[in-house]
Sequence to fold (77 residues):
Amino acid sequence: MMPLDYATDREVLDAALPTMGLTEAPNVGLMWIRSTLDIAEVECSAAYWDQARSRDDLQILTEPRPLPFDERGLLRP
Fold:
């Protein structure tokens, strides 16, 4: 079976989010990990907001925001 291939990160998410079962796309729990070798920071979807705020062992660096796509539809590093 050939792996799916999309030109941009935005296209990947647009294709994947509707397949998440009974969860509507805005409520899907996603984590963006820049490097699994150094998990000092992760970006989480808004679905984790309340849970993250209730933990003393996490530091929240930003308020919920849209994913940082560039003009080509790629996630910014």
